[in-house]
Amino acid sequence: MIDSTPQDLFSKLKGQFKNLTLGREDGSQTLVPSEAVFFEFDFSADGERLGSVVVSIVDTGILKVYFSNDITDNVNIKLKNKWYDFLKGLSKFSARNMLNYQTKNISKARLDKKDFAFLSNRIKQRKNLPWKANYTEVSKKVTRILIMQN
Questions:
Q1: Closest Cα to residue 19, out of 44, 42, 48?
Q2: Which residue intervals of the chain are DSSP H helices?
Q3: Is 7 exposed, middle or buried (0-12, 13-18, 19+ CB in 10 A)?
Q4: What global pTM score does this model have?
Q5: How many domains would you assign to the chain?
Q6: How far apart are CA 64 and CA 61, in angstroms?
Q7: What span, in angstroms and rounded, lies between the C-alpha atoms of 13 and 30?
Q8: Is 20 exposed, middle or buried (0-12, 13-18, 19+ CB in 10 A)?
Q9: Residue 81 to residues 52, 75, 78: CA-CA distances in angstroms?
Q10: Half-sphere exposure of 124 (CA within 13 A, CB side)
Q11: In 27-119, where do the E strands start and end?
Q12: Which of 54, 92, 123, 129 is the 20 to 30 Å CA partner of 102?
């Protein structure tokens, strides 16, 4: 089964943001959307840059959005509404692709390669816990049921 989520997310973001950077699980950059699990770009609306945003699908079944705490500080209500509309659109994308949706405020203005590698390693460590895990495919989509036992 081929997962089209990275390509679909790339298409959604590329249509809105010109400065899209794609990252692999190890934090390195890639030009191939199907290999990407991190999507970084500067969120801009009406010609004004609000801040750096990273969308991550490195966690299986979860779409996470990382952005600076102050992304909507000192902007007018119209720009704030565009930001919240963007987040709402990602939430709908997540629901359509049967992904959980999480937003993460961070204190840094921009994540770097070490941050991406750290996030990926944390995911790998979680996957290597001493639990027995059984995956059951429910449909041809990306849906899986995870049963964990000690």
A1: 42
A2: 5-14, 77-96, 113-127
A3: middle
A4: 0.70
A5: 1
A6: 10
A7: 16
A8: middle
A9: 17, 10, 5
A10: 8
A11: 29-30, 38-45, 48-56, 62-68, 100-106
A12: 129
Q: 89: domain range? A: 5-149
Between the alpha carbon of residue 105 and those of residues 3, 22, 66, 79, 101, the distances in Å are 28, 20, 6, 18, 14
CA distance 104 to 13: 18
Cα–Cα distance for residue pair 66/24, rounded to 1 Å: 16
- One-letter amino acid at 98 equals M
pLDDT in tens, 11-67: 999 989 988 999 888 878 899 999 999 999 999 988 888 888 999 998 888 999 998
pLDDT in tens, 90-136: 999 999 999 999 998 775 556 565 665 666 565 555 555 444 444 45
